Fold these 3 entries.
Entry 1:
Amino acid sequence: MPPMTPMANLFGKNPFKSLQHHMRASLECAREVPSLFEALSVADQEQVKSVMERIFEKENAADELKNQMRMSLPKSLFMPVDRRDLLEILQMQDSIADTAQDIAGLLVERPMEFPQALSQPVQELTQSCIAVCEQAARIIEELDELVETGFRGREIVKVEEMMDELNLLEDKTDEQGLEATRILFTHEDEMKPVSVMMWYQIIQWIGDLADYSEKVGDRLRLLIAK
């Protein structure tokens, strides 16, 4: 292993590794969500339940990492970042895992029929939102390099470009979410009112996966700007 640079020595033990571990765990929760809708599209409720159980297990693991980081984070940090900034990023990451859990829980607590008109737009929206989660995770993985370079130089430019791409990806999901909602309301007369409400909520929650991922990038952008 190459010797640590003076800058790395300066930061030494820092919470960025914990933040990365937690983001990976949150991403694992989100990655399971497409499987929920794949199972729902073929009316396989047992598989929906199986995926839900995996999500709940992974969300619990993410919660453990979150709690460990909160307990181990010192009140003051010898770093060019504020403790509150790190906790805000952690909260946004945790919201990704929580939202995946919410989607899974609803689909099991209230078994849902997948309207044919919604199947493709909802699954495409889900895949796009996971892509936003993946991009946010790639940005968090750059924290090591940001620390090594003292939050300056080419690495900052690279991360800012990645955050710009994150924003563009999230914009696409906004458009897809609006289209899925429009299709839902176009076919609402063919559905029970409660089902319309539930599907509206599900579409919103799928979009939240991307929204929280974008907020991870936004919080990091603010952190860097300081």
Note: DSSP finds nine helices and no strands in the chain.
Entry 2:
Amino acid sequence: MINELVKKISDLNAPVVVGLDPMLSYVPEYIKEKAFDEFGESLEGAGEAIWQYNKAIVDAIYDLIPAVKPQIAMYEQFGIPGLVAFSKTCEYCKKKGLIVIGDIKRGDIGSTSGAYATGHLGKVQVGSKSLYGFTEDFVTVNPYLGTDGIKPFIDVCKEENKGIFILVKTSNPSSGEFQDQKIDGTPLYELVAKKVVEWGEDLMGDVYSNVGCVVGATYPEQGKTLRKLMPKTYILVPGYGAQGGKAEDLVDYFNEDGLGAIVNSSRGIITAYKQDKYAKFGEKNFADASRQAVIDMIEDITGALARR
């Protein structure tokens, strides 16, 4: 799967992924009103509003980008109807030719980890049939339970030609409380990075591994170090835009060939119509505002790479 992702990034010259992380407050009023008229002010109504919001944005941007990253928590808050919206969003994105990175941050052991991997990346046996639960191509995984938590995902990825992105250095302000702690003089995130490389050797694509990592845009110095430690590991980079990460700070996350990293923006894209820069589009044309924001993001990042 990493080969497909790299090819799409190269063909589009777009090392970006759009985070489909909807809050109900992001959805234009006219979409919510229509959903509530049909389903009431209910979880079903919320799920329908989010699905229609996502669909419109995807229709506007799918030809510009290689991948999307729906964050499952934003859907789980609406219970089963929210998960239905998550599933419909993933399936629709795949029909549009997009690679789907499920931002699920699972991390457990044994049969539980195996069940997560099966549910999101593999097939579950139901009688005589093997059926997909969800339809992601990659998922994010928390490594802090060690190999016991990672190996079930790797096993499923081998069967399905899919991949994972393992949390190494996250973008949130308090990430250093644990991730920066030193063990024999080495930060914990570097030790995790070395383990990611080890795990990834068992799941290589042509150049990069199907075992990638997550390194936040808000820690560029650490990102530079981690790039050197993990030359064949693809880096998923959250934190650009709304969280403060800037394109010029991210160039060292990439290898010399301009590949090796994919930068995520969520609110900066899906709520573009609420920003002063794109206010001219108005609420009715929110998806067009998202399209322009994607174009601007791609130009920003590829421009920074060209200048380095």
Note: The chain has a mean pLDDT of 96.
Entry 3:
Amino acid sequence: MEILGQVKTSFIDYPGKICTVLFTGGCNFRCGYCHNPDLVNKTKNVMDPDEIFKHLNKRKKYLDGVCISGGEPTLNGDLADFIAEIKSMGFLVKLDSNGTNPILFKKLLDEDIIDYIAMDVKAPLSQYQKVVGASVDIRKIEESIDIIKHSHISYEFRTTVHKEIIKEEDLVDIAQSILNAKRFCIQNFKRSGVLLDDNKAYTPFAQNELNKMKQSLASYVQEVIVR
């Protein structure tokens, strides 16, 4: 596993849990608004896995779980083995993913070694390539959505919104593609440092605009959250 970063203790990355967040390197998308270009481009040093597991052992009494984020974690061929080792230590595991590897999702679920999946649905399915800046097999996105919706674990779908790309009508389109999902999270764009495409402007929505979006989506999914 190529772990390029870590937040040792987080109260926000795993809903209702205290976790460590591990960030993998590399991504098959090139979203201009991505706030982790150092992970996408692998410009950070790879961490020693032994040090990560030492930390987890020391914090067993205080941590509920581990969130594996990125980058895109499913690009790592040994992800399932890595997760299995974390599970064997007694931790819950949450995976953040862009949903391009449904086969791996199924493997993790079949082996019962995953507890929560947060899948980014980047855009309406018809607009994916434009938003993510890369070629996308939409069938894999649709398959991942279906696998997650019919799984036995906790999950959420989430979309980052900004006025230049994702608008309210786009969110309705996305909500229809995840119809009846348990949870849909609207993540307002927040600039925090250098972006992958730092030459473009990305404008967040005002709170009243987000609240209006939330109301418009309520009939499509079981729960809508604004972050």
Note: The chain has eight helices and eight strands.
